Amino acid sequence: MNYSESSQSSSAQNSAALPAQSRIRRVLLTLRDMLQTPFNTFGLSRLYPRRPSFEPDGFVPSSLLGRTCPTTAEHTDSSPRIFAPPYPFPNMTIYRLMSWMNSGTTRVSETKVAALVKDVMLAEDFDREHLQEFSVKQSLRALDKDDTGKRITFPDDWIETNITINIPTKLKEDAPRPYTISGFHYRPLVEVIRAAFADAQARAFHLSPFKRLWKDPIDGHEERMYDELYTSDAWLEAQDDLQKLPKVSGCTLERVVAGLMFFSDATHLANFGTAKAWPLYVYFGNLTKYLRSSPTSGSCHLVGFLPSLPDRIKDVICSLPRVSKTGMASLHTHCRRELFHACWEVLLDPEFLYAYRHGIVTKCADGLMRRVYPRIFTYSADYPEKALIATIKDMGSCPCPRCLMPKGLFSYLGIARDMKFRFQNLRVYVMTQVVKAREFIYAYGNTVDGAKVEDTLGEGSWVPVLNRFAERLGPLGLNPFRMLVIDLMHECELGTWKALFTHLLRLLYALPEGLQLVATLDERFRQVPTYGSGVIRRFANNTSEMKRLAARDFEDILQCAIPIFEGLFPAVHDAAVQSLLYRFAEWHALAKLRLHSDSTLAFLEETFKKLSQKLRKFRTDTCDAFATQELPKEKAARQKRFAQRSETHEVPPESTGPRAKKFNLNTYKFHAMGDYVGTIRFFGTTDSFTTQIGELAHRALKAFYPLTNKLDTPAQLAKHERRRRVLRRVAEASDVSASISPSPVDPPSLGKHHHIACSRNDPVALFTLLREHDGDPALKTFVPKLKDHVLYRLRKLDISFCDHMFTNEEHNSVIIPNDTIYFVNTMQVHYTTYDMRREYDTVNPRTHPDVMVLSGETTPMHPYWYARVLGIFHMETWLNDGGRPVKQHLEVLWVRWLAPLRNHKSGTKHARLPKVAFVDESDPDAFGFLDPGQVIRSAHLIPAFSSGRGVSSLRHGRSLARPEGELDDWEVFCVGIFVDRDMFMRYTHLGVGHPAMVRKMIKDSLGFESRGATIVSDSNEADMDDEINSDEECFAGCDDTEEEESDGDVDEMEDGNSDNGEGDSDDDDDDLPSF
C-alpha cells in the first residue's frame, strides 16, 4: 500500500468511528437549570448555566489563596499519629527515608537537611533498629518492581515503543525507506485521566463551568470577569456542545469535561554537555491555576518524552541518490516533523479517540460516578514547536500558526484592517492538498520542497506532513490552530521586549558618546534598588551585555527601564523613547493580569493600539535617524557561527566588521501581540497557560538527571518520575501524607494588616538618641512629634490630617516608661491583591524602606503619599491626664516624607511615571511618625537619574535620614508603578480586590470620568488619526521585504525629557487619568 492509500485509509477509519447521520430529523429540547449565586463582599457572583452537582472550593483552605509570611505563620500542634507502613515498605522509618530521598532534589542544602531531621529522624514512628538491615538498592527494587506477588502497578505506568517514519526517495521506482527511532516513552492519556480523577487532588476539580460576574460597588454596573479556564467561553462552549451530544445508550450519568492543557519544550539537563530532554506535560484545567502554577503542587502530569532524530539518520539521508546538500537539510527537517506527529499518532490512540467521543466512566472525588469527556483546550509551546504542531514552515511567508496574514503586513499591527484580517483569515487545515502533496513525494519521487509540492499546498506556508491533531480530532470538534495559545514569556519578554531593548542599545552605541552612554546605563541599572522577595533583583552585571539573562531578568529590565533611559538620548528622541517604554510596560502589565474584566480588556486593547503606533513611529522617526550596527555580542556570535560552518574554521576579513541592523517589526512575535485580547476572552488569563508553568516543571527533571548514569536518559527519568508518583499515591492511600506534609491551616496572619516583632533586644533611650545625634535635622522635633503621634492615637483622633495643635500640658501627659523605645528590623504588611489573594510586603529601613499610604487631602491630585521608613519601633505608653491610666502598646514608624513634584504630569494620559521628591527639611512635616496600620504596601522608588543627586532637601553631611556613608540624596524619584500587577492596578480604579472606597478615590483623583471601556477616549488625537489612515492605505499594498531572525531549531535551547512630560504628543485625551 502506498502512502496516499494509507492516509486515506486512516481518515476513513476515523470517519467510521463517528455515528452515522440519521435520515430522520431530530429536534433537541435542552432544559437549563441556571443558578446564580449572590454577590459577595467583593461584588462577585457565579452564573452557572446548569446547577452544579459538586462544589470543590470547600476543599481548598484559604491558606492556599494567599502567601503567608513565614515569621507570622502559626502551626497547630496535633497529637502524634501512628500509621501502618505503606506497601511495599516494611516499616515507617524506611518509608520516610525513601520519601526524603526521592523528593526531587540532589543538593544537600540547609532546607534538605532540615527536612531530613524533621520529617524522618524526629518522626514519632522513627526507629533506628529498623535501619539495621536497610539497603537502598533493595528498597528501590521493591519500589520499582514487586517480587512478593502484590503489584504496585498503576494503569498510567510508562510504556516504551518504537516510532517508524518513511524517508522519501527522489526515485519514482524506489519505495520510501522506513527508519525506526527507538525509545519513545509515554503514558496512555486515558489512563492518566483515570488516575488524575482518582487522585486526592481531584477533590479540587471544577466539574461545572460558570461565568464570573462583577457588580461594581461604586456605581452598580455589572460586567464579565475572566480568569480560570473553567470560567472561560471555551469551557462553556465545550460543556454546552457536550450536553447536545446524543447520550450513550442506557447511561444516565452526568457528563463533565476533563480540560487538558499540554505543555512541551526541549530543555538542557545540565550546564555542560549535550544532554537534553523533550518532555510533554499535561495539566488539568479543572484545577485552579494558582495550584497548577506551583511546581510542588503535584498537578503536573509528565506523559511523555518526545524523541529527537538521532545523528545517524544523516548517514541514511546521505546514502539516498540524487540528494543535494540543500535537499539533505530539507529532508532532515521533513523527517523531524514526521517524527513529531508520529509520536502524537501514538498518544492519540483509539482508546483516547473513543473516550473523546463517548467519555470515560469514573468515580469522582465526591463518590459519584460520572462520564468524563477529555477535551484539549490549549497547547503551550515556543514558536518553533508551534510551527511543528501546526505543520507550517518555521518563518515562512505566513508564519502565524493561527491566521494566514503574510509576514509583510505584520508591522501594521493594531490598525482596524489588521485585526479584521486576523479574524477573517483564520487557519483551516487543508487535508486534501496535504494528502495530494504527499502522494507527489512518496509515490512520484518529488522533493519535499519542490515546486509541484509547493504549488499543491498553496499559500499558507503549509508543509507536506499529516497533522495528527487535525486528522484524528478535527472531525470531533478540535481546532488544532486555536489551541496554540499566545506565549507571553517567549514571545514578549524573550521576544518583542528583548528585541526592542537590544535595538535601544544599538541606538546608544550609534550616538557620538555611545560607549560612555552604555556605561552610564549599566551604572544606573546597578543603582536600582531591589524590591520584594525576588520581585526586582539586583542588577549586578553589565545589563547591556545581556549575559545569561532569563525571562524574569528581561521583565525586571522592562519594569525599571523608564528612569534609566531618561536623558540618554538627544531631547528630540528622548520623549519618544520615554513614551514607548511607558506604553510597553503598560501593555505588559495588562497582558499579564491574573484577573481581567471587560473594562481591563478594553484598556488592554486601547493600550495595544497606542503601543503599535508608538512602535511604528519609533521605527520611522528615531531608528531611521541613526546608522545602527550589531552589538559587540551579536558580532562575536555571528563570527563564531560562521567559523563553525566553514571548513577552515577561519573568519574571512570581509565578515569581521559589524553589520548594519535595523529595527524589524515584521516578526511573528510582534504580530502575536494583537491576539492577546481575543485569547484572554476565550481561554482566560495568560498566567493559566503561560509556558513558564512548563519551564518550572523542568526543575524536577534536572534534579533527577544527576541520579542517572547518563545512558538511556528518558527511561531513567521516567523511572524516577514513577517513584515519586508512587510514593505520593501510596501515602495518600494510607493516609500518611498528612504526617509528611500536613494540610495547610488558615494562619491568623492572613487576616492581620501587619506584623511587627515584640522584641526588646534593641532598646533606645530617647534623650540618649538626641544627645548622640545632636544637630541632625532628622531629630530636630523628634520627641514633640512623637508625643503628638501618641496623643492622636490614644485619643482616637483622625490621624490622616494631623492638623491639631497640642499644648505643652498635653505633651507632658504622655508617659513613656524610662523614655525608652524598642527598635526592630522589619515589618510585614499584609494586603489583599486586585485578584483577591492575600500577599505581604516586608519593610526594612535598610534594604526596602519605602512605603505608600492613602493621601490625607480632601481633594487629592494624587491618590497616595510616600514615605521612607527610617526606623520601626514599639513602646509602652499611657496618658496621665487625670483619668485612670491604661498602659497601651504602640507600634510606630519613623518616616521621612516624599511629595509629588508640582507641574509634573504623569499617568496613562501623559505616558509618564509619577515623580516624587523629599520634603525640604525646613518644612515642619519633612519628618514624622506613621501608624503602621496606614501603610498600604511597600513602594518601589527608582532614582530619576537624569535629575542627579544633591542637597536641596537636606543639608550636606551624615544623617540618620540617609543610608550609612551617604552625604546627599537623589533629587527626584520615579514611582515604580509597574513593579508588579497589583501595584499597577492600584493606579487604576479597576482592582476588584481593592476596597471600593479606595477605588473611588483613585477614580476621582486620577480623572477617570467614565467607567470601563472608556479609560481611553474615542476622540483620539488628529495626528494619530492621520497615522492610522496612512497605515490603512499601506496595509494592502505592503510586500514581504523583511525577514525575521529565526528562533532556532526546536531541539536547540534559547539561550532628556522635561518634567512636565508633554513630549508625548499622542497622549492628549481629556478624559484620561492625570496625576
Automatic annotation (TrEMBL):
- InterPro entries linked: Plavaka
Q: Which Pfam families match?
A: Plavaka
The ranges of region (Disordered) come to: 1017-1075
Q: Where is the composition biased (Acidic residues)?
A: 1020-1075
Name of protein: Uncharacterized protein
